[in-house]
Specification:
Length: 226
């Protein structure tokens, strides 16, 4: 495994360099010209090729989404980086991660927070993600198969919530499960008009929304797609 990882070191470095350049290019919309150092370290630490199907591994570090099966994709590395940075996870945070996929975003979050509760609707993806996360010793992740629109009520409230698929409207359950002082990062909107959003919840429950830029994500399903 170590030898296999060595083969990807340069590709991962190129991925990080491309992300860094794209952040500078988008600094006007992001409000910053560089990502948090902890986020970059997590991206450097987590092997993206371990979270894609075997036939996609040669393309794992290209800055593009890739198919992971069941009609779903792993997000573009730049988008993963930006969403993680916008979320601003802290070492003591309890996070909710909606749309596990094969677990790449989840693994990055596990490096940055105290515990990650991750929800995936499609059982086949969840089972594969659980195995991949176990192999990378992501011991601070709890994963369940469930409808992401409903969040994870039994474990709420959460300091931060991130969603890796796009509902048309922001689910009320996720807003309710966000702790005062917390933050929700997600894409939302119709398929042809999605926006990446940051929603902050004040201590009194007041919500403040910020639109970042246009994105295109898989739809956040509420029933298992056929």
């Amino acid at each position: 495994m170590a030898h296999e990882d060595d083969n990807y070191v340069q590709a991962r470095e190129r991925m990080l360099a491309e992300i860094t350049a794209l952040v500078i290019f988008n600094c006007g919309r992001l409000g910053k010209a560089a990502l948090n150092r902890r986020v970059l370290e997590a991206l450097a630490d987590v092997p993206r090729h371990a979270f894609v199907p075997l036939d996609m591994q040669p393309y794992a570090y290209a800055d593009s989404p890739l198919p992971i099966g069941c009609g779903k994709t792993i997000s573009q590395p730049f988008i993963v980086a930006v969403m993680t940075d916008l979320l601003d996870p802290q070492p003591d945070d309890k996070l909710l991660d909606i749309g596990t996929g094969l677990g790449y975003q989840t693994a990055i979050l596990s490096r940055l927070a105290s515990h990650v509760y991750s929800v995936e609707l499609i059982e086949a993806l969840a089972l594969s993600a659980r195995q991949r996360l176990r192999q990378l010793e992501c011991h601070n992740v709890t994963l369940r198969v469930a409808n992401g629109h409903q969040g994870w009520r039994e474990e709420a409230p959460f300091d931060k919530i991130i969603v890796s698929a796009a509902p048309e409207e922001v689910p009320q359950a996720l807003l309710d499960q966000l702790a005062p002082g917390g933050r929700l990062v997600l894409p939302a909107g119709p398929a042809d008009h999605q926006q990446l959003l940051v929603i902050d919840k004040a201590g009194d429950g007041t919500l403040r929304r910020r639109d970042i830029f246009a994105v295109r994500f898989s739809v956040l399903e509420d029933t298992v797609p056929r």
